[in-house]
Amino acid sequence: MFRKKYTWAVCYGLLLAAFTVYAALDTFVIRRAYTVVEDSAAQPAPTAAVSITEAPQATAESSPAEPDPEPTEEPVSTEPVITESSYADGNITITITEYRQYDTSIYVADVTVSSAEYLKTAFAENTYGRNVTAKTSEIADSVGAILAINGDYYGSQESGYVLRNGVLYRSLAARSQEDLVIYADGSFEIITESAVTAETLLAQGAAQILSFGPALVESGAISVTPEDEVGKAKTSNPRTAIGIVDELHYLLVVSDGRTEESAGLTLYELAEFMQSLGAETAYNLDGGGSSTMVFNGTVVNNPTSSGRSIKERSVSDIVYIGY
């Protein structure tokens, strides 16, 4: 009898251990591709944007033998002007500045665009799924991003809205989850998932929904407190945030952290910093080892998970500026 009980206990323990290992693998390792984005709006950034003045078309009164009129203007070229820390063409202007505050290096991309269509998101491997990841720089390169930061790492969660480039991939709400909605006109709004469905937001013109948080600044006022740190962000860490100053004027921000050179930021410090830059709305994205900024194919900051080595962590998605 004693041997039977002992054997049952061992079997139960082995089954429990096996289930625990499987659950961990399913959460963090096993790759599940749900949807491949076949018709991505993302295209490689052109080396130059060229506007050509077309010759006038022949009219019914024109003689077929007459030569076409000479064009009155030369073709107008608007090639981008690019430096190590800036980019400018007819539609996109980016200036990157490094700040030193809170004993931390903070990298700010000040972005203005002529249309919200140049503010986009992209999945790792162009695939919506679970544990489908790639480095921020690799995703940025795959879509021809001029500027990119890591996104919300939606793939590590089973709930929380996922709306990207106008396509709704996940509408399962997470309790008390605070999201950033980016509308097709480029405006920002902070919402709580329990208060509005993803389908409603899509119908109202939402183009992107980022589900991480919390909101840092709303209507120009800081919306977190020093005592308000969420469970996943209790100490100083590398951080990533996005904000809007005014119409089609954005801030993409990444800070270093976890090293002797940079302590990192608390959520309140990040909110305080975003407010100081003039952000009317600002939102916290995935941080820690995920925090990465890429500009013209070069990693701008010093991403690290442990502080012992500087290297990118693979993530599920990015927010980027590009064509």
Element layout with pairings:
Elements: H1 2-28, E1 32-36, E2 49-51, E3 76-78, E4 81-82, E5 86-88, E6 92-101, E7 104-113, E8 119-123, E9 127-130, E10 134-135, H2 136-143, E11 147-150, E12 162-164, E13 167-170, E14 178-183, E15 188-192, H3 198-203, E16 206-210, E17 215-218, E18 221-222, E19 239-246, E20 249-255, H4 267-276, E21 281-285, E22 293-295, E23 298-299, E24 314-315, E25 317-321
Antiparallel strand pairs: 1-9, 2-3, 4-5, 5-6, 6-7, 7-20, 8-25, 10-24, 11-22, 11-25, 12-13, 14-15, 14-16, 17-18, 17-21, 19-20, 19-21, 22-23
Show unreliable segments: 17-25, 40-69, 71-77
- Rounded to the nearest angstrom, the radius of gyration is 24 Å
Beta-strand percentage range: 25-35%
Compute the separation of the termini in Å.
72 Å
Shape: globular
Biggest sheet layout: 9 strands, antiparallel
Description:
- There is one protein chain.
- This protein has 323 residues and is of the alpha+beta class.
- The protein has helices spanning 2-28, 136-143, 198-203, 267-276, and strands at residues 32-36, 49-51, 76-78, 81-82, 86-88, 92-101, 104-113, 119-123, 127-130, 134-135, 147-150, 162-164, 167-170, 178-183, 188-192, 206-210, 215-218, 221-222, 239-246, 249-255, 281-285, 293-295, 298-299, 314-315, 317-321.
- Strand 19 (239-246) and strand 20 (249-255) form a beta hairpin.
- It starts with a helix and ends with a strand.
- Mean pLDDT is 85; it is low at 17-25, 40-69 and 71-77.
